[in-house]
Amino acid sequence: MTKSANAHPHLMQPLDLGFTSLRNRIMMGSMHTGLEDRFYNYPKLAAYFRERAKGGVGLIVTGGISPNRQGWLLPFGGTLSSILDVPNHRTVTQAVHDEGGKILMQILHAGRYGYQPFVVSASAVKSPISMFKPKALTEDGIAATIKAYVRCARLAQKAGYDGVEIMGSEGYLLNQFLCVRTNQRTDDWGGSIDNRMRLPVEIVRQVREAVGPNFILMYRHSVLDLVEGGNTWAEVVHVARALEAAGVTLFNTGIGWHEARTPTIVTSVPRAAFASVAARLKKAVKVPVIASNRINMPDDAEALIASGSVDMVSMARPFLADPEWVNKVAAGRVDEINTCIACNQACLDHTFANKRASCLVNPRAGYETELVYRRAQQPKKVAVVGAGPAGLSAATVAAECGHDVTLFDSSDRIGGQFNLAMQVPGKEEFAQTLRYFSRQLAITGVKLQLQTRVTREYLLRQGFDEVVVATGIVPRTPRITGVERTNVVSYIDVLQRKVTVGKRVAIIGAGGIGFDVGEFLLHDPSVPLPLSIEHWCRDWGVDLRAQSHGGLVEPAAAKPYREVYLLQRKTTRLGAGLGKTSGWVHRAVLQRNGVTMLGGAEYQSIDNTGLHITVNGEPRVLEVDHVVLCAGQEPLTELMPPADAPSVAGAPRFHKIGGAALASELDAKRAIREGAVLAASL
Ligand code: FAD
Ligand code: NAP
Ligand code: SF4
After folding, report:
1. Is residue 281 part of a domain?
2. What CATH number is attached to the domain comprising 502?
3. Of the candidates 610, 631, 652, which is a domain's last residue?
4. How many structural domains comprise the chain?
5. Which residue from 266, 494, 569 has its CB within 8 A of the most atoms of ligand 2, so it is best to mutate?
6. What pTM was estimated for this model as a whole?
7. pLDDT value at position 120?
8. Ligand 3 contact, 589 CB (< 6 A)
9. How far is the CA of 450 from the centre of ligand 2 (A)?
10. Which ligand is nearest to the CA of 427?
């Protein structure tokens, strides 16, 4: 996979903006980390951006900063409205400039997406994702809002930013003014598209006037709203041209409102799915245009620039996953990229839970000053048993710190359960993590011993100082009469394709694995994976040409491939424990495929007819060919010494991490983080 250093020449070309130039065509898009909301976290924020600027990215955009209190996304969210805030921001701009980078501050007014009581919008239309109903801005309120944007941009200039990005997409305030969905005004700020775009155009015009010509003014324009009452393509272009005339230096593109019921960034969205929409905008305007959403590897990015489709690519989450993304591409070390798998588990899911954003595959993200991989004073002989995500993380970090590490796995390949996860349609990206770790093992010099099932006695004989038990889990077999029958199979056999599953299936257990197995069984094997962009658009009803309002059309999904029942004993909503920003997508796929989801199920028995259950006291027989067990997991800890074992001088210290430590609620985020934290402390 390694390519020569000039394999991505277009991506590495500078971009001349007239009064300034960017060192390459790659932008780190805006991501809310949580650090920007508190002044005392600015040194951490500066370290986070410094690492990315050092990694070679051409342009960085900060997380959203509000121009005033009404624009807060969350109570006391990051605001730039006073000269007193400027010194904090200077620590950030200084850090980026020290590393030769450029940085824009994003001005984000949340409008009715604000999760706080001061929310305002174009009209008093409540959003489905905030409990606070907005007040419609008065004419005076609109004038004050424009002033706040101008003041914010001026202060950003004082703080040393190279420009600002005005957030006009994802359904935030300016997008709310642009679309009839949320703009029902009858004054000069509503009605026709000329009136609806008056606020963003006026903001751009006045900001440009205030900051002068030599300050980057990027506008993030919603090119596909993906909501009813969104704009048509003709309107999108009309607005873009007016914004360009008002002083925009370059356009970033935004896809979908946050309340859209079409996924836009989760891992099952095909790579670069929306780049063609950005390419159409480029044809309509003269200033440079940036493509965004689900671009994570350099070949796609290079193709977009080389073909002249767009001028730059924006990636946000990929820079959480790997701050050195650009330098690695420039040096032809593409196979060393720690690829963002678009899981959202440690970034967006954290943001929406008001927690600091990090990254599942890179636990250092957002913790640059706290999780540091230092050279060990006394290198040790370390055994790591289990090459799943936990063991891979522990082994590579320990070796990076200078320890002599041997990694064992009983399987013939690394990856543990990730090998199963990547079989699930739409989770193909998970293979990238194993490619990354495979390369890291070689670079850090870990001695890998596959097909080696080790015992405690063996480990005690080998003179290890530290033993890391990362042996994962064993699947739980529930006690149900008939569970031993041949029509009952485990999720492992299904995902490894060891069994031919019939057309009617009942899945016991509706956790993450139950949902994934459901998607696996519903996929028609004659359809190639990953899904093509066209196929995915048909399934979700997306019209990339946006001839219709918001780019929405009737979905044309195929007939379900199997008849599936998904069951749990709890009476809560099925899938309630799935990721906040991705769970709804899994539920929607299963619903679209007619899956019967049953909560409150009591399992009675399994026989030739199928699965006998009771729901609300009513007996039911699910006539199925197979029952698939996805009933959770138990830790595999056979290598750990018994708790009461006497301590022996010279014996290694044993540690458990990942599934071996705790199987319930385990996910790879915790497994990888635990591995890294332990290894850094050895
Ligand atoms: P494992 O991945 O189970 O690895 C343990 C390893 O230890 C195995 O390779 C095994 O062969 C080896 N081993 C065991 N005993 C020995 C021994 N005595 N000697 C040598 N080797 C031994 N998590 C997420 O965060 N997000 C997801 O979207 C997600 N999707 C998933 C989908 C599926 C279908 C599955 C099955 C899991 C998914 N997971 C997901 C869970 C995730 O894969 C696990 O949390 C993670 O793999 C746990 O890592 P681990 O290293 O602790 O254990
Ligand atoms: P899980 O989320 O704990 O779900 C286990 C399921 O089995 C539950 O639905 C549970 O529901 C059921 N169950 C538990 N004990 C049972 C019993 N004795 N008899 C019958 N049913 C039983 O675990 P998982 O689905 O195995 O997933 C393992 C880990 O991988 C999870 O922690 C998950 O986070 C992670 N994962 C994550 C994703 C993701 O998209 N983020 C995807 C896949 C896996 P009831 O108790 O109500 O019956
Ligand atoms: Fe990407 Fe997942 Fe990391 Fe977020 S947590 S940056 S989606 S790999």
Report:
1. yes
2. 3.50.50.60
3. 631
4. 3
5. 569
6. 0.96
7. 98
8. no
9. 28
10. 1
